[in-house]
Here is the input.
Amino acid sequence: MVIVMVIDQYDTENEAAEKSKGAAIWASRYAEELRAKGHEVRIAATGDSAPGKYVMKSKFYPFVSKIADQNGFTFARMDEPVIRQAFAGADIVHFFMPFKLSYTSLKVAQEMNIPVFSAFHAQPENVTYNLGFKHFPIVATYIYGRFNRTFYKHFDHIHCPTEFIADQLKKHNYKSNLHVISNGVAEGFHSMEVERPPELKDKFIIGMVGRLAAEKRQDLIIRAVAMSPYKDKIHLDLCGQGPKEEMYKKLAKKLKVSATFGYYPKEELLQHVNMFDLYVHASEIEIEAIACLEALACGKVPVIADSPNSATKNFALDSRSLFHNKDPENLRRKIEYWMDNPDQIEQMSGKYVAAAQANTLSKSIEAIEKVYEQVIAEHNAKGKESVS
Here is the structure.
C-alpha cells in the first residue's frame, strides 16, 4: 500500500517534540513499522526535510500557538500543491489531528477520490486544561462537538487508542465505526539489570514518564512524598520536559524532596525506567499513556490516578495500584503500602509485564493494516455502486 500520514508535527528529535511525546511519536513508530513490512509511507507535516516527507510551513495562531508551543506542538499551514504531490497515487490517507491542515487536506483527498481514515488523538479535556477552562466541562463538550462537525463526521472509520476514548466519542454522538487499537508498546521496553549511581543505591526510586505539564500532575507525587515518614528514603525520577519544569523543581526544593528531572532518548530512558522501584502515573487527562504501558513492560508495578478523564486507570490490575485523583494523601498511603510490601512488588511485576504484552506495537500495526484494507475495500465498493 501507499499510505499518506497527515499530521501537523511529525519530527520527534527536535526540542519541541521532546516536550510532548504524543501523536508525533506514534506516527513515526507506525511509519517505521509499516515501511518495514513493505508499505510506502509518506508524511505530510511541518519540520525538517526527509525522504518520503512533504514539508508544510508552521502556522501561528494568536494565544493558542503560544500555549501549544509550550507543550511541544506546532500547527501546520496548508500547502495545497505539496499536499497534492503527497496524495498522488496514494491508496489511503491517514489523518492524525483534527486541525486546519487535516480538514483542508481532507477536501483534497475527497476530490482526488482517495480512501480516508482518521485517528482521535486530541482529547478536548487536554485542550481545555491548557487553556484554563478545566473547571468548565461544557467547553470540552463544545470542542467534542466542533471536532465532529468540522472533521470526524466525514469518516466512516476512526481509530481510538482505548475503550475510554471510544466511549467518550459515543457519548458525544459520533456515528463512525470506532476501532479500539492501542498505540502499542515498541520493542525494546523490557526488564533489565541496571547499575544505579552510588547516591541512589539505598534509595527507593519512584518514577513517572511524561510531559511536565499541569494536567500530568507531577506535583501530586512531590507532595505525597513530602508527607511521608519515608521521605528521606525516597528519590523521585521525573522523566520529561515541559512548561511546569521550573515550578516543579522549586516545589521539590521547597519541600525538601530528592528529585531529578530530564528528557532522555529511548535507550537512556529505558535505563531510568528499569531503575524505578515503583511507577506512579498521576495524570488527570490521558487518552492512552504509552509511557505507563512501557513501564509495565519493564516489570514496574504502577500506582495510577483514578481520574474520570483518563484511560490510564484501566491498566491497574487491582485497587492497590489506584489512588484517588488529586489526592496526595491517598497517594502517600499507596506508595507506603508498596514500600512496606516488596514481596508484593515482586509478585505483581510479572503480571504487569503480561498485561503490557497485550498491547505491543506489532499487534497494533497488524490491526491498523486490517482497518486500512477494510476502508479501501468499502471505498472501492461504493465507487462500483455509483458507476452501476
Remarks:
- The mean pLDDT is 91.
- The longest helix spans residues 361-387.
